Amino acid sequence: MDVITITQPNQPQAEINATLDDGDVEMEDEELDVDVNGGIVDSAKSKNDIVVPGELITDDPSWMRGHGTYFLNEKTYSAVAGTIIRVNKLLSVIPFKGRYSPETGDHIVGRIVEVSNKRWKVDIGAEHDAILMLGAVNLPGGVLRRKSEADELQMRAILKEGDLLNAEVQSLFQDGSASLHTRSLKYGKLRNGVFVVVPSNLIIRAKNHAHDMPGGVSIILGVNGFCWIYKTKENQVPVAGGSSTQSKAEAGFQAATHNGGYTPGMGSVSITSLEEQSSWDIYSDKNDTISNSIKETISRYKNCLLALSHCNIAINETRLAKAYDISLGYGDVNSLVNEEVEESIGEDLINSGKMRGVV
Amino acid sequence: MDTTYASSAVKALPDAPVLSILINHPPFASMERKKRPRNDRRLAELSIILKRCFEKTIMLQNYARSVIEVTVTILSFDGGLLATCCNSITLALIDAGISLYDYVTAVTVGIYDQTALLDLNSLEEADLSFITIGVVGDSDKLNLILCEDRLPLDRVERLISLGIEGCHRLKQLMNETVREVGTDLLSKKQ
Amino acid sequence: MTEQFVLPGDQIDVSTVVTGAAVTLGPNVALSKSNLEQTALSPTTAGLLNVKNAESRSPVYYVESNGRRYNPQVNDYVIGIIVGAFGEYYRVSLNSFSAPVLLNQFSFPNASKKNRPRLQTGDLIYARVESVQRNMEAELSCIDPTTGKDGGFGLLTGGFVFDVKLAFARYLLFDADAKILSELVKKCKFEIAIGVNGRIWIKTDDIKTTVACSNAIRNCQTWKKEELSAKVEDTFSVLESHD
Amino acid sequence: MGLDYDISTNEQEFVLEALKQNVRLDGRKLLDMRDVKISILPSEYGHVEVSLGKTRVACKVSAEIVKPYEDRPFEGIFQINTEISPMCSPFFEIGQGSSGSGSNSRQANEEVLISRMIEKAVRRSNALDIESLCIVAGSKCWAVRADLHFLNYDGNFIDASCIAVMTALLHFRKPDIEVAGEEVVVYDTNQREPVPLSILHVPICITFNFYNPNGNEENVKGELNNELILADASLIEERLSLGTMTITLNKNQEICQLLKSGGLNIDASLIMNCCLYASKLVSRLNDEIHEVLKEDSKKRRNVREEKELQVFNERES
Amino acid sequence: MSFEAESGFLEQVDGSSTFEFADTKVISSVAGPLEISRMKNEKATEAFLDINILPASGVSSTRESLLESKLLSILSKVIDVSQYPRKQIQIVIQMVSPGESQLYTVKELTAIVNSVYISLLNSGISLQTSFLATCCSISPSGDIITRPTAKQLESSRSHTISVFSITDAASDSLIYSDSEGTFTEEELLRVLDSCAEDIQSMNEKVREVVHNRVKGDYIWHI
Lengths: 359, 190, 243, 317, 222
Known about the structure:
The structure holds five protein chains of five kinds.
Chain A: H1 13-22, H2 25-31, E1 50-51, E2 56-58, E3 64-65, E4 69-72, E5 75-78, E6 82-87, E7 90-95, E8 107-116, E9 119-123, E10 130-133, H3 149-153, H4 155-158, E11 164-172, E12 178-181, E13 188-189, E14 193-197, E15 210-213, E16 217-221, E17 226-231, H5 248-258, H6 273-278, H7 292-310, H8 317-328, H9 339-356
Parallel strand pairs in A: 3-7, 10-12
Antiparallel strand pairs in A: 1-6, 2-5, 4-5, 6-7, 8-9, 8-11, 9-10, 11-12, 11-13, 14-17, 15-16, 16-17
Helix pairs in contact in A: 7-8, 7-9, 8-9
Chain C: E1 4-6, E2 24-25, E3 29-31, E4 41-43, E5 47-52, E6 60-64, E7 77-86, E8 89-93, E9 101-104, E10 124-131, E11 139-141, E12 154-156, E13 160-163, H1 166-174, H2 179-187, E14 190-195, E15 199-204, H3 207-219, H4 228-241
Parallel strand pairs in C: 2-6, 9-11
Antiparallel strand pairs in C: 1-5, 3-4, 5-6, 7-8, 7-10, 8-9, 10-11, 10-12, 13-15, 14-15
Helix pairs in contact in C: 2-4, 3-4
Chain E: E1 3-7, E2 15-21, E3 24-35, E4 48-54, H1 62-78, E5 87-97, H2 106-123, E6 130-138, E7 144-146, H3 150-154, E8 158-167, E9 170-181, H4 185-217
Parallel strand pairs in E: 4-5
Antiparallel strand pairs in E: 1-2, 2-3, 3-5, 6-7, 6-8, 8-9
Protein name (chain E): DEKNAAC102523
Keywords (chain E): Exosome, Nucleus, rRNA processing
Subcellular location (chain E): Nucleus
């Protein structure tokens, strides 16, 4: 009998020996058959079943096949490594990782990559660049204004290549690419902060993705994994952290209307020509003055975000706030870029979660 | 075993989906430290072969107007180049969440006298005749066969059947790893 | 054959033209540039000189040549392959490697913004050359200008398409007693569309007959008239003998 | 990006449907090869033209004396040039294959594969004994080169060019030489009969193409194993094929090279059948090549005898 | 003094021919007007002539580039390039046997020009005129040899290639001429005269070859 060895670099020595000793392919097959063929799920199987490409999910033809699956005859197979999701009779597999695939209503952060005919192309980390139509942005001069030809000619004055913005996915095209809009006060061009990218699958979908954090810093956790950490806007009713049921945007909106005073950079509803002039501010390229301490806090949040991403911990605002707390114990901001520190922040976070029984 | 690293990215393109595979073989990866010409036909051939291996296995129909770019960098070469590229690309594609019909696994099988050997190192490759076998999933169908040495025709059948078994075994190992990583990812997400 | 063989540089004899007649230059005939003192005609390629309406006041001079690559001429019937779409146009290939021509999505009978044909890349269409302009891509149309209806133009479904030489395609299309077609009629029932761009589409009831017909038409370009019947017979019998 | 053939969906569907019914456009059965016509140009040695149906390839072998490579003083040099020009079809572009892995167009891929295939089949398999090309170790050796001229494309360049190269190598005669120390005397072909190359074996390529009568899923997961296999594809068949395999064998039933690069997945037993079938074709083609060579040498001998007779007669008169 | 020519035997291109004289043999092919395959080659008002000359053995070198540029200067005068704006015409020449040593290009160029002319006629691409090329050498004793062999060429004092346009089956104007070596003005004129004469005699046979091709193209009609 021929000796067959396929060694896996990371495999512990004992296992390699076991393989060697066995020396028989057919027999190994039975022994090492780890759930490969047993992957047929009946409806009783637990919710988070892991499947891998080519694995049989079910031979029940009554299921409808969704994303991440394919079928032959009556059998449905998985096309990606991920977890099975069932919605009514629709069976789909969500990959563990992958490019962001936009869904209507997602709050995302993106970067302008191209200015073209009446539209911008926006890199949102998906397969295709998203499209932001000129008619889907708040034009300077107030929300009520209609777009004019002059606007078409000066699109670069509004948003140009390299600009970052946060927006909502308005609709999807047939090929899965997204059309965005920023026709709300909480969306628009981004300034006064730093841009961080984490894998999109780590961002936990929530009602709100824009949060004011302790330390005078706000954060937008784009569903696409693009995040923006910036100095909290002034003249704004302070919003209590994550426990607040009222969304920041709503609060901001109230601030704008109730206080009577306008908030620069919020694109408030304005009709006077004076305010029209100042509403160009929402597309300004200039940062406000930011104090060193705020800058340091922003950096700390950034490093915390990266630490979470490094440890593959799903991110939401509470976890980030906790990570921030933990990070304070590690002293200087600069020390946080150390890989070991990142890992121990992650560990601390998981442990603290376990202790409290939540997270 | 040599190590290769593959990354994949999807980007918009006006037409039909495109799969592009680029192989880097830096001088430090092999013993001779030979600088390779930029238009090395051997690497060009390798990348074409790999491209054809994956073209039918990736569900390209899901990626209209996109390009899937795969870059393989050979970090250390010690035999089984094509097979390892194949396996690492499979894992990289799975990691990138790209839809595949099944795993593509490949392994080299050599023959010494009457004995068939799996997975040769570069010294063995230099002296023995060997073939590279590639299989998709658990089937007995061949996706890839490459033989560049002289080999009696009547030996081929045995080498192929051993190769297929090797590929199936490799699939199991890769499967375990993918599941492990997946479980780990999931546990932290909770 | 009565037509005269000519080469570029040969002077075409126009002495027979009636004085005051307006001579039309057909395909492959140009004003000679070598002789500026008097108007002289010269062929631009090797071929057979033809004169239509020689005695009349509007004679047409043209040179027949049997090329492979088609140059669009207005009102020609052509078979094209859709190779792409942009804006409201389809890009259509008339010969492999030639520059594609255009087909407006509204150049179909009863096409409107809401109701227009959805053609896919790879679809085969039978169309008429609508306009040809220097420096612009030629444009096709699937509307018969006399009736405004489809007139047989439009999508060709099923069947098989193959290439023949240009003069042969013209002969098949215009010569009512093209012998090969009457021979084929004896053998089987078929649908045929002939494009003067050298493409012929044929559809019969089964695969083997289609193969036999297409081979017969294609190969008959090298057959003499008298051996045609026998060779058509051969072509069909070879395929039928097949298992 | 180069230009490509425009093939309609109608043709695609028709060809596949025909193949399913075991009908090919030129009347062949699936595994039939087209007739191979090998013609040796009479004016010189080692200039051969091969037609496979309408596919036409010429190969010209030439030799000159050069300095061997530094690291291989005991070996001669053997090079094969496989540049494809648009002469055989506008589909191919000049300089495509040499641009290496950077270029991604289909025709560039095709050219790289053809050139690598011939390289592996003939050069790597040691069909030509390059040690016999050594004249004076380290300073003088024969550099033999085979230049392939691709004249007309109708599919299956690989098989045709392999036959062309091997026939040309077998036919080629290099001038006779005499070595005196470091000095080499080269005799004109009129002075001394030129000598053949030392050919160790004759590798012949056979290419199969695969087609899928079912969906992708069936090919990956299904159990039908009814993929269509055909030998010696024509132009349209080659353009529509979903996978190809080239096996190179010599008459000793030895594989010199085997490549199935991805495409459709084909059952191992079918692959083995292809290999066995190929070995039959190879021995037939091998015989054909030697038949042509024998004919040619007979012809040449006659011509020579005639010439000699003429010279003799002239002298007599 | 004879030559051989054949036309229209390649399937995938629009025109093809071989031309062979005194051990020099070439195959040429013409395809066009085609879509431009590289944007940088596009010419707004005329066709781009994509000329490639492939040596019989070895890879293209500066020698082939030289021949290509000479051929381009001839062809751009005789092909009606303005007829095909933004298109390309692909012309490929495969040398089969050069019939002269590496030092000379004259015989090859002669065969190339004549072969391309026949291929162009076969392809149906618009020409302004017919044309043919021939070459002469002057031996040390002052004799003019038209279409010399390799040996005659090597022993010659000078050699000339000339291309004449042909109007009504007679050599008309000189399109291109290229001489090398030493010669007097009087000798050059004599050479050109004998070239013109030679071309006129060649034209008859070329015409016949082309006519036969056309007849073959219409065999179904006869």
